[in-house]
Design brief:
The chain has two domains: 170 residues, 3-Layer(aba) Sandwich (Rossmann fold), CATH 3.40.50.300; 63 residues, Alpha-Beta Plaits (2-Layer Sandwich), CATH 3.30.70. Helix content is 35%, strand content 28%. α4 crosses α5. The longest helix has 18 residues. The protein binds adenosine-5'-triphosphate. The site of adenosine-5'-triphosphate has 13 residues, from β4 and α1.
């Protein structure tokens, strides 16, 4: 967290030099709708930090703020020690951003799109050619470089968007749902490349996703729900925060079974997506007790170690895919 100091009656927040991205108590409204609520987190240098959240959680709004497309309404933020509110031009030079919305010129070839992007950043000549070839190679686009962007599939277009964000060798990459539309092979290659950028070039990567398997690959994760950060930590630490094993109980008599389990075992199962869900330190033993106690009410029970989806349910009471846009 930033240190707050008093200077001439003005509160100044000092940034923590150890962080590459610092977000401190950011809130953002669209009219009456509160899209981000007092959000704070820090991303360390050369870290891959994931923001996991369902649609409407506020991920895109945060990206638009960090990439200087939206002005900050309240709170403070910095990237590589530069203040977002006052040094947006310098920040733009050192970040690479890929948004969900398409930005390619469909009437230009892949290579022309990349050249255009390079020129915007003042890159030309041999350096430009080298950067473009490198990005094409790592994103599996070399044999499509002369094809019109309009002729590409959604997944290939996505890869060109990502290539565009990498051409000026940014220190910090902001990737908003980069895997959307990519098949599993392309997703695997993208992650291999992101980890290479992290390892060899020390790039810091902030990525948003709603895919659990992608979230698993991040060094640390923030779980964003209705504009608030409900959990923060490594995937392992987050999973460990869920108490023991997770049981999902199917029944035709959910309300009755919920009451009876609560009375008999003094634990309150949550009703999530037409089933009962509870956490127990020794799930396999409890499962047997449960079936012995209510053989007529229990249709089936599944038992598993906590997943990131369980972390989300644990923190919000909602199933990830059913979390509503209610902010
Ligand atoms: N321009 C806008 N005007 C009004 N409300 C908006 C606007 N943009 C976003 N919102 C609302 O703000 C909230 C957060 O939206 P945001 O797009 O940041 O979420 P998200 O997590 O990126 O979702 P998605 O993955 O669907 O893009 C949502 O409730 C959304 O409806």
């Amino acid at each position: 967290m930033p240190k707050t100091v008093m200077l001439s009656n003005t509160l100044i927040q000092e940034t923590t030099s150890a962080s590459s991205i610092g977000v401190f108590e950011i809130s953002h409204r669209y009219g009456d709708r509160l899209a981000l609520n007092q959000l704070s987190f820090e991303v360390h240098p050369s870290e891959i930090f994931g923001l996991l959240g369902p649609n409407g959680g506020g991920k895109t709004t945060l990206f638009r703020l960090l990439s200087t497309l939206l002005p900050l309404q309240s709170g403070t933020a910095n990237i590589a020690g530069l203040d977002l509110a006052t040094e947006s031009q310098r920040i733009r030079n050192l970040i690479g951003v890929t948004f969900q919305s398409p930005s390619l010129d469909g009437k230009l070839t892949v290579q022309e799109n990349l050249k255009h992007q390079a020129h915007l950043y003042g890159i030309s000549g041999a350096l430009m050619r080298e950067r473009i070839e490198n990005a094409l190679k790592h994103l599996g686009l070399t044999d499509r470089k002369h094809g019109l962007a309009d002729s590409l599939s959604g997944g290939l277009k996505r890869r060109v968007e990502i290539a565009k964000g990498l051409l000026h060798a940014p220190q910090v990459l902001l990737l908003d749902e980069p895997s959307t539309g990519l098949d599993p092979g392309a997703r695997h290659d993208l992650w291999k490349y992101l980890k290479q950028l992290q390892r060899e070039d020390g790039v810091t990567i902030l990525i948003t996703t709603h895919l659990m398997e992608e979230a698993e690959q991040c060094d640390r994760l923030g779980i964003l729900h209705q504009g608030e950060l409900v959990a923060l930590g490594t995937p392992d630490k987050l999973r460990a925060s869920v108490g023991g094993d997770c049981l999902t109980i199917h029944s035709e008599y959910l309300d009755e079974l919920q009451t009876k389990i609560t009375e008999k075992f003094s634990v309150v199962p949550q009703i999530v997506n037409h089933s009962l869900r509870l956490e127990h330190p020794r799930g396999h033993e409890f499962l047997k007790e449960l079936i012995d106690a209510f053989p007529q009410l229990v249709t089936s029970v599944s038992l598993g170690k906590p997943t990131l989806e369980d972390v989300f349910i644990h923190e919000t009471g909602h199933q990830f895919w059913q979390a509503k846009e209610t902010v």
